[in-house]
Amino acid sequence: MFETISEKFSGVFKRLSGKAILSEKNIAEAMGEVRLALLEADVNFKVVKSFVDTVTKKSLGEKVLRSISPGQQVIKIVHDELVELMGPVEPGIPHPETPTVIMLAGLQGSGKTTTAAKLANYLLRKGRRSMLVAADVQRPAAIEQLKILGEQLGLEVFSREGRPPDICAKAVERAKLVGIGDVIIDTAGRLHIDDEMMKEVKEIARRTSPHQIYLVCDAMTGQDAVTSAKAFNDELSLDGVILTKLDGDARGGAALSVKAVTGKPIKFTGVGEKIDKLEEFYPDRMASRILGMGDVVSLVEKAKETIDAEDAAKMQEKLLKAEFTFEDFLKQLGQMKKMGSLKEILSMIPGMGSQLGSLNVSDDELTKVEAIIHSMTATERRRPDIIDGQRRLRIARGSGTAPEDVSGLLKQFRQMRDMMRAVGSGRMGMGSLAGMMNPGARMKPFKMRSKRKKKPRRKR
Ligand SMILES: Nc1nc2c(ncn2[C@@H]2O[C@H](COP(=O)(O)OP(=O)(O)O)[C@@H](O)[C@H]2O)c(=O)[nH]1
Ligand SMILES: [Mg+2]
């Protein structure tokens, strides 16, 4: 997610924060690069212009230039303006009455049907049971798709013959009758905006008076997504946008432009095809991610959701106190796998975002890591600092890896601990940009060097 832009921004900011004194020329240069990075990321050009103007003006203030860390001040200004650009947004879905009607609109293939199921799943986790309404009668496959997803969730999928507005009105009636909390309407899209589709969604809106209307947009279509969002908003008065396929969006243009162009914020993001790949949208976290500073808060929350809350608290405490050992690490590996792909998790760790391009952690690598840890003695796992050359050789042999693999893992582990120690001691508070930009506290990506194809052996 956002690899391209993160990389560019990291470069600009590294140069900025390395300078003790900033001149107007330094700032002009940096802003030129920021401008280019945003344009390359396919951000709307008007948005880019006003963004760069604002940041430049604020950066040139006396207070910034004369401060002890001008570069970091500028980074903070950029961060805050990014937050401003994408927010504010109320988290969650309001529930003013039963049933609460949530309508999804959007072009064909944007991810409406998938998102309908994701939202139902999201609400289910909050204890809200919803009914899914198949209002895309154009394609029988679409109804079938929704039915399968509904079945997975154990939720009713309302599907009838007839005109979509009639179907939706009946669905709401039924929800009222049986007392279903939320109704999620999956409407039909077209490949392009056309009058017929607009007429249909408007009629559905009139007949069902949705409490929330969300536009589902495919992030990978960049400015086209923004253009269609504007067109829909002119007709429907949206409550927010759900930006899908962010997992495949290296540029971030749509994410950064939607709010500025339409006035409506992103409410949720889709980050994968599976039903649990929906995230609430937080402008500040997204800004940190775009700046390549990772997203510790999201990571901790995600861990909390998957891992038992008490375990998560313990793990967090250990991480922050830097008491985290390989034993804990091994225990977490299993749970990490449940949380999603490793790459996804790593992208949330500060300093990792921009380096993911060079990162290649496959399940194979994970197996290797596991094998290495398995080959350590209990003492070594608890006190990895005692691992010397001899021990390293033994571990490598035992796990069928190369000694460099073992050193690599040890090095990464130490760096992670140091970084966490910095966070824990408050030198690198989660909101402290200054701390996160400190290159010494950043984590290098974990990369195995060994090219050996041999399957790692596991020592019992
Ligand atoms: N990678 C990824 N794929 C998605 C996401 N949301 C939807 N898709 C995929 O996009 C395609 C179209 O989705 P669908 O829900 O059928 O779109 P609809 O025509 O708007 O209903 C499907 O192959 C989905 O699996 C997402 O957040 N990430
Ligand atoms: Mg569909």
Quick overview of this protein structure:
This protein has 3 domains: 3-86, Four Helix Bundle (Hemerythrin (Met), subunit A) (Up-down Bundle), CATH 1.20.120; 100-290, 3-Layer(aba) Sandwich (Rossmann fold), CATH 3.40.50; 296-441, Orthogonal Bundle (434 Repressor (Amino-terminal Domain)). It contains 21 helices and 8 strands.
Task: Explain what you see.
The chain has 460 residues and is α/β, with parallel strands linked by helices. It has three domains: 3-86, Up-down Bundle (Four Helix Bundle (Hemerythrin (Met), subunit A)), CATH 1.20.120.140; 100-290, Rossmann fold (3-Layer(aba) Sandwich), CATH 3.40.50; 296-441, Orthogonal Bundle (434 Repressor (Amino-terminal Domain)). It contains 21 helices and eight strands. An eight-stranded mixed β-sheet has the order 3-2-4-1-5-6-7-8, sandwiched between helices. The chain is globular and about 75 Å long. Guanosine-5'-diphosphate (GDP) is lined by residues 106, 108-114, 189, 244-245, 247-248, 270-273, 277.
